[in-house]
Amino acid sequence: MAYTKRFDGRAFDELRKMKVKIGVVPRADGSALFSFGDTIAIAAVYGPRPLHPQHMQNPEKGVLRVNYDMLPFSVTERKKPGPNRRSSEISKVIEWALSPAVRIDEFPNTVVDIFIQVLQANASTRCAAINAAAIALAHAGVPMNELVGAVSIGKIDKSIVADLIKEEEDYEDGEGATDMPMAFTSRSNKLCLLQLDGKISGEELKEAIKAGEKACKKVYAEQKKALKMVKE
Amino acid sequence: MEAIKQDSRDMKSEMTEQTAEKKKRDIVIPGETIVTGSEYLPGDCTARDGEDIVAIRFGLSDITDRFVKVIPLAGVYIPRKGNSIICKVTDITFNGWIMDINSPYMGFLQVMECSKFVNKNDLTEYLDFGDMVVAEVYAIKHRGVDLTLRARGLGKLEDGMIISINPNKVPRVIGREGSMINLIKHETGCNITVGQNGLVWIKGRTVESELFAKEAIMLIVEKSFVDGLTEKVEEFLEKNRKKFGNSVKSEEKGK
Fold first, then answer.
1. Over the stretch B159-201, which tens digit does the pLDDT of each residue have?
2. Per CB distance under 8 Å, which residues of B are interface residues toward A?
3. Which among B58, B101, B165 is the top mutation candidate for probing chain A, defined by the most A β-carbons within 10 Å of its own β-carbon?
4. DSSP structural state of residue A53
5. Do B84-157 and B161-254 have matching folds?
6. pLDDT confidence of residue B23
7. Mean pLDDT for chain B?
8. What percent of chain B has pLDDT over 70?
């Protein structure tokens, strides 16, 4: 049986309900909470501030440092706290996704730290993390060329769907599930994150990227709305 | 009471704001187009992208005739030459003090730049770790900021209270030509120095009057872009004068 109806009854290009809150971490320079349905991520931004150890400093431009982690209670099976292979990879990937948007070269020898915690996970945690981090960076007053929006696009059996949930990731019938997190910059519309887990043909990949571009516009609209609501 | 040093750049921009034609200020986000058209000129925190003027920081857009800028709402303090700032001694070297200036970069105060004689063998005699100083930025180098104490109103802070505010709100707290800060000084009887880096030193004869001044400053920071802010602050000072004790009043009588 082909995958014609989604587990949670959404349309194929429909995202889960997004929620954005700004200023959730009072001691941070900027912070935001972003959620895709049950997936909730909090990002806190500190800096630009002096970078230590000194050998990590770059006299030509600043350093962006991302720390992504999942809280022990965020998943069904308790996650051992602290960094692991998966979280260090995701940290790096998020850093690369955000770096084209941030004007980090204005602050040589300094660091901008982004700490991301996943409170609750139901797939697409790295996408929620990128969205939260982009808002938090803007809220912290870091100079940026544009924002970054991220969404996961999947191919379940033969259909291209947006914003996967856990059940869809684990779908095994027919051609199975393919999960592709992707991120686009808001203004220049450049692809700045593309990962792939599964199988997909060239034609379908093009289609998926187009769907991702469309979905990221919706994410951007939500980010923009939230930032505009901030009280002076 | 000593006149406060202030950023002449901010004053100038605020004065032009009043005379020139003004549009309503809107919140803009990074990457958002503020206006389109090659006749507009990009100012602070904006960039040109083709025909568009784009915001590169989160803040309020401000269009004065053809000049477009963004007033940031958040962000770290970026030192500028001539700023008077409040800083803290974090380290001592053989020829000066390293200061925390509430910015991404460190400040350095040379012994040479002190206003009086300092025994070079023991710099702690003049400034020790943790001491707070009002200093002026006199040079910005590729790594750090050079400070000086050789001007009026600069030097070590011996007592009083220091509060920290958002450095982007400092021009609001000072007000046009120092009007706002002078109002608070007058009403509370406190001596106040607002550092451009967002640290504010308050010294009154009683702790109550210092707390009163602090509350007033916090009010300005919170409501910084409300219309008729000066009236609001006046109202606040009037209403709370009783609450913060008779000490303030008796001080005024003493004058």
1. 999 999 999 999 999 988 899 999 999 988 899 999 999 999 9
2. 27, 29-32, 45, 47, 49, 54, 56-60, 72-76, 104-106, 142-143, 168, 224-225
3. B58
4. S
5. no
6. 67
7. 85
8. 86
Q: What b/e string do you get for B87-101 counting C-beta neighbours within 10 Å, with b at 16 or more?
A: bbbeeeeeebbbbbb
Structural domain total, chain A: 1
Residue B232: the pLDDT is 86
Mutate to test the interface with B, among A46, A223, A232 (most CBs of B within 10 A): A232
What are the structural domain ranges in chain B? Answer: 23-72, 84-157, 161-254
Contacts of B60 in chain A (CB under 8 A): 232
**B-chain residue closest to A48, CA distance:** B104
Coil, strand or helix at B242: coil
- Between A and B, how many CB-CB pairs are < 8 A? 82
A141–B75 CB contact, under 8 Å: yes
State which CATH number among 3.40.50.300, 2.40.50.140, 3.40.630.10, 2.60.40.10 fits the domain covering B84-157. 2.40.50.140
Q: How far is B248 from chain A (nearest CA, A)?
A: 31
Residue A42 forms part of a structural domain? yes
Domain B23-72 belongs in CATH node 1.10.357.10: no
Tell whether A11 is covered by a domain: no
Quote the domain boundaries for residue A122.
18-228
Enumerate residues 6+ apart whose C-beta is below 8 A from A226.
Answer: A20, A21, A22, A32, A135
Buried residues in B15-49 as b, exposed as e (16+ CB within 10 A): eeeeeeeeeeeebbbbbbebbeeeebebbbbbeeb
Of B45, B60, B104, the CB nearest to A50: B104
ipTM more than 0.90? no
Residue of A nearest to B72 (CA): A141
**CA of B78: which chain A residue's CA is closest?**
A107
CA proximity to A146, closest of B137, B81, B123, B55: B55
